[in-house]
Write a structure and sequence with these properties.
By secondary structure, the chain is α/β, with parallel strands linked by helices. 32% of the residues lie in helices and 22% in strands. The protein folds into two domains: 3-236, Peroxisomal Thiolase, Chain A, domain 1, CATH 3.40.47.10; 243-394, Thiolase/Chalcone synthase (Peroxisomal Thiolase, Chain A, domain 1, 3-Layer(aba) Sandwich). The chain has helices at 14-23, 61-77, 100-106, 121-125, 129-138, 153-166, 184-192, 231-236, 265-278, 296-309, 320-323, 330-344; strands spanning 3-8, 11-12, 29-33, 36-41, 89-94, 144-147, 172-179, 219-220, 222-229, 243-252, 287-289, 315-317, 346-347, 363-364, 369-370, 375-382, 386-394. Strand 1 (3-8) and strand 2 form a beta hairpin. The longest helix has 17 residues, at 61-77.
Length: 395
Amino acid sequence: MTGVGLLTPAGDGLEDTWRRVCAGEPAAALHRDAHGTFVVGRVPEFDTARLGEARRWKPDRAGQFALLAAREALDDAGLDPAEWDGSRVAVLVGSGTAGAETYERYLPLLDSAPEDVPPLALPSSLANSPAALVSMAFGARGTTAVVNTACASGATALAMACDLLALDRCDVVLVGGTEAGLTPYHLRGFDRLGALSRRYEDPLGASRPFDAQRDGFLIAEGAGFLVLERPEHATARGARVRARIVGHGSASDAHHAVAPHPGGTGIAAALDDALRNAGLRRRDIQHVNAHGTGTPRGDAIESAALARAFPHQPSVTSTKGVTGHLMGAAGAVEAALATLSLQKGVVPPTANLTAPGPGIEVDVSGAGRSARLDTALSLSVGFGGHNVALVLAAA
């Protein structure tokens, strides 16, 4: 991993996001519209001129986020697209709702004259649009795809990127996740499921992973991108390496459309698969960036699975206490934050954690900690029973 780019509710860019995550400062606000009141995490306002030539394609908000995070990741990696062999560069993007913002914006116009819907509305509303935009912006002509495993999408994209590199299908993968799902349909839909926090009187305290008072997740938007390279390629160009992804594992619950398996079987299988792939023992894992959304059932099941898998009690954090739940982008953002934990020797606090809830038996803290870390694990879980674990090692 040679480059990282972030655009999250916690900050516009890698450094701003990391600073706020380490400070444990939640990024949340009330959102009111004709459909109700919600607590959400929005990215900071940005100048759309930063999108460059891509503006002429009228990109969906998810595509805009992807472009900005991908550009920062490339700059961080010291890669100039004008100088690379684009046929050896792949683009993989995880997203659960890509195109939804454009689709919902123009849906009310279907009963009006056809010319009221602009020609580029359709391609911008398609789920593949973030990957296509990134590919066009940077001349990446290798494998290009959007991956959807709900809230595990970003992590799935990273796992697939590792396989592409291992198979020598490319030299570089620009990989990440993006989400712009703060739309009327998705806000109302997640709320009807009972998944969202309703702490309207205290928006900054809404996202409370593993806390006794958690009542649901904080739905958020944003993007995270990473540059992954074959080791030989990175060495040949003298690249700085931030971390290595040494293993990944995936498994499905095959249980329920939205609820995780009560026994955490899919999580356990993904963890075992990732450790086998990495060639590591359980006690080798020193830190876990957990999925930790703040839902009563989900956090309890995840905590129990982690406690069984890692009885030596590695440090655990959920950075969603600050960023909120970036849905399909979460896995990529959290892998990036786990990378920074390895580099800087810091375990970020789990914001808003005052007292762990009953049955939360992992080493999670509301305070940040310094620690020498050689290995970390990032865990993602998605609706439909998708579970993905990524094992990272210090460079």
